[in-house]
Amino acid sequence: MAALVLFGGGGDLAMGMLLPSLYFLEHDGLLPDGLKIIGAARSEETPAEYIAKVKASVESKADGAWSDDVWARFAARLDYLAVDATSAESLKPLKDKVGPGECTSFLAVSPSLYARIVTAMRAAGLAEADDRVVLEKPVGRDLETFREIDDAVSDAFSEQQVFRIDHYLGKETVQNLIALRFGNTVFEPLWNSQNIDHVQITVGETVGVGDRWPYYDEYGALRDMLQNHMLQLLCLVAMEPPADLEPDSVRNEKVKVLRSLRRITPEEAERVTVRGQYVAGTSEGKAVPGYDDERGLDSDTETFVAVRADVDNWRWAGVPFFMRTGKRLPEKRTEIVIQFKEVPHSIFEGGRGVIQANKLVIELQPEEDISLSVMNKRPGLDQRMQLQPIRMSLSWGQEDKDARPPRRRIAYERLLLDALNGDSTLFVRRDEAEQAWKWVDEVSEAWAEGQVKPVEYAAGTWGPREASYLLARTGRSWNVGNE
Ligand code: BG6
C-alpha cells in the first residue's frame, strides 16, 4: 500500500492547500486505492484531533464539492504522528506507520530544515528506491544555498525521486499554453522574432506581505516570484517544441531557454530592472500600511520587481520579455501577453494608427482564459471601411460549454496527483533550478554592487513609475496599469 506523508502536516500550506486538494482528488475518484495520508508535525496531538482540524479546513474550502460520504472515505485514509522530522530516531515509528509500500513525502516545512530532514529520512528508511520526496519552493536563497540543500537531497534520493514543486506549473491555463502552442499549427509559425514584438508577464497581487515578513524579508519579490514562477512561465512561452511530453524532453527545452537568458551586468541593471517597495496606500478600498510598517523597521527588501529579459537565441533575438510582479498592486492579475508586430502597411484610412497589433493574452487570474485580439470591420454602411478590435476567447469552444469545470482547481491537485504517479514533467529539474538561480543571483549581485535600493510606490498602484518607463523607453506599454 502506498503512503503520502505530509511533513508540516499542520501548517498553512498543508491545511490550506494540500489537504483540500487531496480531498478534491478523493471527490473525483482520483486518489490511488489504498493510499494512506499521514500528517507529520511537531505538535503533540492525536490522530482524531488532527483529523478534526483537517475537516474544518477542507469544509471551509469545499463549497459545492462537500459530501459527507466523500469526507468519510477521505478521513479513513488520514492519520497523524507527532515527530521531530530532523531526528532519524523520531522518524522510525513513522516508517512503521507507512509500512512496506512506496512512500511519497511532501516537505511542507521551512526549507532551512530540508537538508536535515532528508538525512533523517534516509536513516529511518523513508528514502528507499521506490520512495519520492516533494520539495516546496524556495529551495535556497541563491545558487550556493540551493546547492547545499540539494546536495543533501541527492545523497538520499536520486534525481528521478525528487519532485521540486512550482505550483504555477499546476495551473490549468499554464498547461493550456502548452496545448495551444503544440496542439495547433496556426501559432507556431508566428512564434518568433519575425512576428512577435515583445512578451509581457505580469503577476500582480493585492495582498501585502503582512505577517509573512520573517520569510519574505529574506527573499523579496525577485527570489519569491521571479526566480521560479515567472521564469517558468517565460520558459514555456520561449521553449522549442519538445519531442514529446516526457519529463526530460520538456525540461531539456526549458533549461536551454534559461541558458540563453542574457546576463544582467551591474552596468545594465539600472536600465533593465526596477525594484520597488510599497508604502502606505489604499488597497481594495481600505487604508493599508507600508511594508516597513508591517516589518517594524526599515528594510531594503523589494516587494515589486520589473525586469527586461532577453533570450539570446535565433527564435527570440530582439524580442524583449518584460516581467513584473508585486504585492499590493490594484488587482490580482496574472497574465502573459504575446504582443505581435504591427501590420507592415495600412490600406485603411487613418494609416497604421487605426490598427491595433494582434495580441494573445493568456490570463491565469482572475479568469482562466486565452484570448486573441484581432481587427474586424465595424458593421455598417460607412463609406470608408471602419475597423474595430475584437477579443476572441480561445479557451472554451461552443461545444465545450457544458464541459466547463464547475470550479477552479487548486494547482496542487494536478501536482500531487503527478507526484503520486511518479510523473515529473511539471516539476523542476536540478539543472533548471540552478540556471534560474544563476541568472537571478546576477541580478541581486548587480543590485548590491550598484547599491540599487527599492523605489517607493503607494499600495494600490501598479508599482513605481519606473516600471512604466522600462517599456516606454522602448516605445511600448504594459497591457494594464501604465502611469
Ligand atoms: C507563492 C509566493 O509561491 O506564490 C507568494 O511565495 C505568492 O508570495 C504566491 O503570494 C502567489 O500564488 P498564486 O497562485 O496565488 O498566484
Give the mean pLDDT: 95
Oligomeric status of the shown chains?
Answer: single chain
Cα gyration radius (Å): 24 Å
Shape: globular
Q: Structural class, from secondary structure content?
A: alpha/beta
Low-confidence stretches: none
Strand content: 15-25%
Bound molecules: 6-O-phosphono-beta-D-glucopyranose
Lateral strand order in the biggest sheet? 16-15-14-13-7-12-11-8-17
Task: Reconstruct the topology from this structure.
Layout: E1 3-7, H1 12-27, E2 36-41, H2 47-62, H3 68-75, E3 78-82, H4 88-98, E4 103-107, H5 114-124, E5 132-135, H6 143-156, E6 162-164, H7 172-182, E7 196-204, H8 213-238, H9 247-260, H10 266-272, E8 273-279, E9 281-283, E10 286-288, H11 291-295, E11 304-310, E12 320-326, E13 333-340, E14 359-365, E15 369-377, E16 387-393, H12 411-421, H13 430-449, E17 455-458, H14 465-472
Parallel strand pairs: 1-2, 1-4, 2-3, 4-5, 5-6, 7-12, 8-17
Antiparallel strand pairs: 7-13, 8-11, 9-10, 11-12, 13-14, 14-15, 15-16
The protein binds 6-O-phosphono-beta-D-glucopyranose (BG6).
6-O-phosphono-beta-D-glucopyranose binds at residues 205, 224, 334.
Textual characterization of the structure:
37% of the residues lie in helices and 20% in strands. With 483 residues, the protein is an alpha/beta fold. The strands form 3 sheets. It has a 9-stranded mixed β-sheet, sandwiched between helices. A 6-stranded parallel β-sheet has the order 3-2-1-4-5-6. β14 and β15 (369-377) form a beta hairpin. 42% of the residues are buried. 6-O-phosphono-beta-D-glucopyranose binds next to loops.
